[in-house]
Design goal:
Layout (H helix, E strand, L loop, with lengths): L9 E11 L2 E7 L8 E2 L2 E3 L6 H13 L2 E14 L4 E13 L9 E8 H4 L7 H10 L27
Parallel strand pairs: 1-6
Antiparallel strand pairs: 1-2, 1-4, 2-3, 2-7, 5-6
Amino acid sequence: MTLNVATLPITVGAGAFLVRDGKLLVVRKTYGPSKGLWTIPSGYVEPRESVVQTIEREVKEETGIAGHAGPILAIRNRVTEAANDTFLIFAMAYVGGEPRPDREEVSEAAFRPLAELKTSDTSAPFTRAIIPKLDRRAGLSLDPYAPSADLAHPIAYLLYL
């Protein structure tokens, strides 16, 4: 029997591509396939949270860095037997703070040179793959319209163009 993707749970995650002075904000996760390797800060959307709120919260929680979500640079989608998983990669503007790992999900947080990360064996394969593709990409920007503040309203959504 063929897998019916429409019956799978849908998960949405977000990752941050935050560059400051030629260095990318990266973390070493304490779990998962990228455990111990440099990768971008990321996490999953929580109930009643927008993707913008998710990535700003995750970056702050994992690294202590305050950032402002910018354009969506890329989308990764993976369908497995368990879920239809979508991952949005946001450009982020540095607002403030110094890298400080949360010591739960992340053992280290740092700004590392882009050139080093795209070739190093200490970088996750995903990190090495996205750096040359996202380094100077404009991406899709959030439309400036003001949606309804009522999340139950049918036009309470974010639009990227």
